[in-house]
From TrEMBL:
It comes from Dactylosporangium maewongense. Its cofactor is Cu(+); Cu(2+). Residues 233-348, 527-623 form the Plastocyanin-like domain. The keyword Transmembrane applies. Homotrimer. Belongs to the multicopper oxidase family. It comes from the Bacteria. The lineage of its organism: Bacteria, Bacillati, Actinomycetota, Actinomycetes, Micromonosporales. It catalyses: nitric oxide + Fe(III)-[cytochrome c] + H2O = Fe(II)-[cytochrome c] + nitrite + 2 H(+). It is an enzyme of class 1 (oxidoreductase). Keywords: Copper, Membrane, Metal-binding, Oxidoreductase, Repeat, Transmembrane, Transmembrane helix. Its EC number is 1.7.2.1. This is Copper-containing nitrite reductase.
Length: 644
């Protein structure tokens, strides 16, 4: 959709180029060589021409690098300012033999360009344009104060009419645009707001009474072993394998943070200590179905832990699997800077094997999206020594928002778990490529052969070999891409596509240019709304819930539902046929439609958001709410809580 927007704007800019030439001709008269144009006319022509060129350049850049490129967002604002100024410079002080001609042509070009830009880019651009026109009015007033030649009556009336028309456009654009830009409330409470009851109806809603999320702490008694950890958020400098140093935010001074290993059934107690200067922090247990009060989402389940303060998380590790933890306060910034780590829950009765290799591999990009991709802190190729015949389990974690392709070659391999849930009867593959969405995890196993085995992750890699010094096999054949919907064999599930669902929801994903939280942005929407205006999905305890994700955008969106695991029922209308595919983070690719289901068996107020955290920061957040549950916490500007 956005490609067509750019094509339309580039066509508008192309039309604007000859209009600029016509404006020059009208300002100078038919006998251009006999009369020198005024400075104002020259400036009008230059600005109009410059705006057209700038918009063309913006279109080319956006088509080449896409909507995630930050610079062109500002380039879209600059033409609005230039075109608005052009409209005034062109007619407030026209000169030459045809004073009305310059005003008519330049004003028409300016108004059409402003209207087109505002319509294509969204009402946010109208706010910018309105402000620009108001500013240009002051400049125009100064020009009107300058001496000038008498203007014929007809030209004066025409100029007054154009001035009135532009004034109407300015007032309308400023009023509509600024009102929309200010529509985002300074604070948002999870106790109320719009709700969706599963029948498609949207209405205002305010809980009265009920239970607070702070009371949903879960049972922490019993005779289970207690595993205690301390995570201290602090600044530290970490060194990549290239020698480059990164000023990071870390847990316990290391990045990634320390790996926490517990047994299924253990009671986990983690004390968070915040020593970051001037920034709050939380810890979210990604993929672990913790009690709601322990979910670690600032503004929803707790207040962000202030500098110098502490918070204790307590939950039972009920499901074995590969998980990870990260801050959920300003997550789009703090996770990228290093506040994340791995959490591994081993099976309850699995014996400790000294002869097995069990390695967690976290892929992370330091810096912006075009920064340095690493496995741990290594951007290059790492080497591991593994004796022949030893079983190897690799726990692959993508801490980035964009999907990453993990490739294993050199040995027969099985994919044994997805998002912490085992795959039923995983087949042996000669090698495998796995597209791991943002926040997702895949576990793979192989037995070490007498030749090197290479793991690659879109750049960085690890080579396992008996000698420990082998290089990657660059001649290895590219294996097939894993299709989780067809891998493994079917098994019984507590519900299926044909079950009776108590609640059904459809979430349509789009993207558009505009303003979000008072700044120009690519807004990501769910059912044409951005947080906090996306209706909350309301359920009752015990409900069987079906959700359909329809991605109408050109981006990948890893949808992460807190506190629950979803069973994937179908993709693009085709039912899954392999092992039951359970996820907590589902990567929904461009144009894809997924139908998933889950049981509402964990009361609370839960985030359901895109785990491309830049998308979440630009509005792609909604919540799953249980009836009768409220939250005392606030989020947004004016509070200490910014969950994304």
């Amino acid at each position: 959709m956005f490609l067509w927007v750019h094509y339309a704007d580039m066509v508008t800019a192309l039309v604007q180029l000859p209009v600029a030439v016509v404006a020059w001709w009208a300002a100078t008269g038919r006998r251009a060589t006999a009369e020198r144009p005024s400075r104002t006319s020259a400036v009008a022509f230059a600005v109009l021409l410059g705006a057209a060129v700038l918009r063309l350049a913006a279109g080319v850049v956006l088509l080449r690098w896409g909507w995630e490129f930050a610079g062109p967002r500002l380039v879209w604002v600059a033409p609005a300012l230039l075109v608005a100024a052009t409209a005034y410079l062109g007619w407030l002080r026209p000169t030459g033999r045809r004073p009305g001609g310059a005003g008519a042509v330049a004003s028409a070009a300016g108004i059409v360009s402003v209207a087109a830009l505002a319509q294509l880019a969204g009402v946010g651009a109208a706010a910018v344009t309105g402000v620009a026109i108001v500013a240009a009015s002051a400049m125009g007033y100064a020009y009107r104060r300058l001496p000038r030649r008498p203007v014929p009556a007809r030209a004066g009336r025409w100029r007054a009419a154009v001035r009135a028309a532009v004034g109407v456009v300015a007032v309308a654009a400023a009023t509509v645009g600024l009102s929309m830009a200010s529509a985002l409330p300074a604070r948002s409470s999870m106790s109320g707001g719009a709700v969706d009851d599963g029948g498609g109806a949207v209405a205002g809603h305010q809980h009265s009474g009920g239970i607070s999320v702070t009371e949903l702490t879960g049972a922490d008694g019993g005779e289970a072993a207690v595993r205690r950890f301390t995570l201290t958020a602090q600044e530290a400098t970490v060194r990549l394998d290239s020698g480059a140093q990164v000023a990071a935010w870390t847990f316990n001074g290391v990045a990634p943070g320390p790996q926490l290993v517990v047994r299924q059934g253990d009671l986990v107690e983690v004390t968070l200590v915040n020593r970051l200067p001037g920034a709050g922090v939380t810890v979210h247990w990604h993929g672990v179905d913790v009690p709601n009060a322990m979910d670690g989402v600032a503004g929803v389940t707790q207040d962000a832990v202030a500098p110098g303060a502490t918070f204790v998380y307590r939950f039972r590790a009920s499901r074995a699997g590969t998980y990870w933890y990260h801050s959920h306060e300003m997550a789009s910034v703090q996770v990228r800077r290093g506040l994340f780590g791995a959490l591994v829950v081993l099976p309850r009765d699995a014996p400790a094997r000294q002869d097995a290799v069990d390695e967690t591999v976290l892929r992370h990009t330091w810096g912006d999206e075009d920064g340095v991709a690493t496995l741990g802190l290594a951007a290059g190729v790492q080497r591991r020594s593994v004796p022949v015949g030893r079983p190897v389990r690799l726990r692959l974690v993508n801490s980035d928002g964009k999907p990453a392709t993990f490739t294993v070659t050199g040995a027969p391999v099985r994919v044994v778990a997805i998002d912490g849930t085992g795959v039923h009867e995983p087949g042996v593959l000669p090698g495998v490529r796995i597209l791991v969405g943002g926040g997702a995890r895949y576990d793979v196993e192989f037995t070490m052969p007498d030749a090197p085995v290479t793991l690659r992750a879109d750049g960085p890699g690890i080579v396992y070999s008996p000698s420990g010094d082998a290089g990657p096999d660059r001649a290895a054949k590219e294996p097939a891409l894993l299709d989780p919907a067809r891998y493994g064999t079917p098994a019984a599930t507590p519900f299926a596509a044909g079950s009776h669902f108590d609640r059904r929801f459809v979430l349509r994903i789009d993207e558009r240019l505009g303003f979000y939280d008072g700044r120009p942005a690519v807004r990501y929407t769910l059912n044409d709304a951005s947080f906090p205006d996306v209706p909350m999905l309301m359920v009752a305890g015990g409900d069987l819930v079906e959700v359909t994700y329809v991605n109408r955008s050109g981006q990948h969106h890893p949808m992460h539902l807190h506190g629950h695991h979803m069973l994937v029922l179908s993709r693009d209308g085709r039912a899954t046929t392999g092992s039951p595919w359970w996820v907590d983070t589902l990567d929904v690719g461009p144009g894809e439609t997924f139908r998933v289901a889950f049981r509402a068996d964990n009361p609370g107020l839960w985030m359901d958001h895109c785990h491309d955290l830049e998308h979440a920061a630009n509005g792609m957040i909604l919540h799953l709410g249980y009836t009768g549950v409220t939250s005392p916490f606030l989020t947004g500007s004016g509070t200490a809580n910014h969950p994304e």
